Records
---
Amino acid sequence: MSEMFAIVTGASSGIGLSLAKELASRGYDLVVCSAGPRLAEATAAIRSYGTEVVEFNADLATREGVDAFWNKVVSVGRPVDVACLNAGIGVGGQFWETDLEEELRMVSLNCTGAVQLAKYIIRQMHELNAGKILFTSSIAGEMVAPREAVYAATKAFLLSFAHSLRYELRDTNVTVTALQPGPTNTDFFHRAGMDDTQVGTEGKNQSQPDDVAREGLDALFDGKDHVYSHSLTTKLEGAVANFVPGAVKGAMHEKQAKPQSEK
């Protein structure tokens, strides 16, 4: 058993799986969570690094799912040293055409579930005056994002939430970092219905999830407030985000997110 203990949500694939593997490679025991059948295979991959890994399948878009996951974490009987709140989904398309229930579920998972879980984690960390939290936001949280309007808004919420929590905790030994990846080679765009887009084809190949996870955790352990990851394009977009007019950012995003069949 390691002396270090971490939790990762959305750990069955993509950036979440890479975060869990990276933490395991650094010697952390883990409780990992996701919804669906892929978690068992992911857990086996994480265990190959030689640390203890507990898997827990829960729907973190529901209050009951978050409570069940946190109760599992508490049952391990160890304080959480690192928490990666990564679970999230996307929905692509024009807002007047997209499915309302899918978008409300996205808000429940990306925002509401993150707030609920963060409440439990931070209360524990604050009491112990120790811990590190990584929120997976997105470069989209600083963009004008046509065809991903609600998704980008959820990521802007997480970014603001992370920055505000960090300030509240400034006089403690609890730190908060926001990870802001750009397009990454995961199944995110397929699940968001964006296979037939520039960003969902060649665009996502700008970054690999292992690189994003490594850079995010490096920023976390260095005590940084956020990190743009991983491609040079994402870093440049982040650097100029506050200086580029909204119409220009919107046009850039529209080009990437528009179905290629409409071009």
---
Amino acid sequence: MTPSERLDATFAALADPTRRAILARLAEGEATVAELTLPFAMSQPAISKHLKVLERAGLIITTESGQRRPRTIEAAPLAEANAWLEHYRQLWERRYSALDDLLVQLQTNTPPKSKRKRH
């Protein structure tokens, strides 16, 4: 998968609030499908579909521990998405800073408004 495809998969997976909630839960520690199903009003197969999307995006990994198959969060794709977003945050910060500088310059170079005399 190319970096662009990985980024697409990450953002597509993060677009769903259930998947974001699953990642938030996994940020606290590993969990099985049954444990991940508890806080949601949906079936275990529905949660499993969300987990497959997260796994295809590389956001979670499944490990085997005896009969348990806990899921854990994988930070690398989130770090890549954060780096992509950070690039644009810095771009806009520079643009807003330049706009602030221009506004200050305009304010200091503009002569004060004179009062008009009424006749």
---
Amino acid sequence: MQTLICFISDFGLDDTWVGVCHAVIHRACPQARVVDISHQVPAFDIRQGAVTAAAAVHQVPDAIHLVVVDPGVGGGRLDLCITTRTGSRLVGPDNGVLIPAARRAGGIATVHAIDPSKIDFRSPLATFHARDILAPAAAALACGVEPASLGVSLDPDDLVPAPFEECTTEGGSVVAEVLDADRFGSLRFNVPAGRIDELGLRASELEIAMGHNIIRVPFGATFADVAEGDAVVLVDSSGLLTLALNKGSARDRYGVEPGTPVRIRAT
């Protein structure tokens, strides 16, 4: 039984919202352990929430992932519980934020719409589904409730799509995009480590075209594989192909932002 709940939101830490959700989970399922992965997702940024959730499920697959980046709260969208093919469980709104995480965890096995009446007798507050629906649902899962008991089954094809697509191939290159930049300015691409061989990117050097830049960069294992200030491509802790500088910011040097198209090929 999964009792670890990994919690991601755009709530920040200045208000009561994160703490109240912790309290709701503890009251409903005292044995649950809540780990705060991040509450610094930019406000309303579904894309960054999806990137963060996908990184979390890659690193902690044997958990329940509670993901609340929900600008459409109370507006008629569904609340979901997704079970992946590798057994991870994802709880959050139907706005695409859960889909990349589900992909990283083997794809969607089942998905259920959470019925508030199944977890509480009170009517949920329209602006705080995190407290009144999503956190209680995560707690129920942690206490052994099966997803099918939370609501009706849905067709995965009917869900709101992800805010970014998977990488593809074209003309001998991998067509990808910049997902985000970490606090050190390293640029993560939507190229998972598990596909590097399949995509033909296992090479000593890669050519990367993005924005106005076309660069050739060694494929290393760590930052110190290159001299200070030099660029290196590696797989970061999120399990994604990443362009980094040794003690520098790739984001600042190359002037690209999340969403920038990227073409990558082995030289």
